[in-house]
Amino acid sequence: MNMNFEYQISDKVTLQWVLDKMPQFLFPDLSKKKDRIQKVMTGVVATLNKKPVGLLLSTDDDTGNNYRIHSFLVHPEFRNKGLGNALVEQLEDYLVKKGTAQLDLYYRSHWKSGSFLEQILKRRGWDDPKEDLIIVRGDAAKVNILFMHDRLVLPDEYAIERFRDISANDRDYIKKKKSNENWYLDYLDPFVQENTICESASLVLRKNGRIMGWVISHLIAPDLNEVTALFIDAGNRPYKLAHLLMREAITRQQAAGITRFLITSKTDNYVMSRFLLRHAKETEVFLTRSLYSRKSLI
Ligand SMILES: CC(C)(COP(=O)(O)OP(=O)(O)OC[C@H]1O[C@@H](n2cnc3c(N)ncnc32)[C@H](O)[C@@H]1OP(=O)(O)O)[C@@H](O)C(=O)NCCC(=O)NCCS
Question: 112 pLDDT exceeds 80?
Answer without folding.
Answer: yes
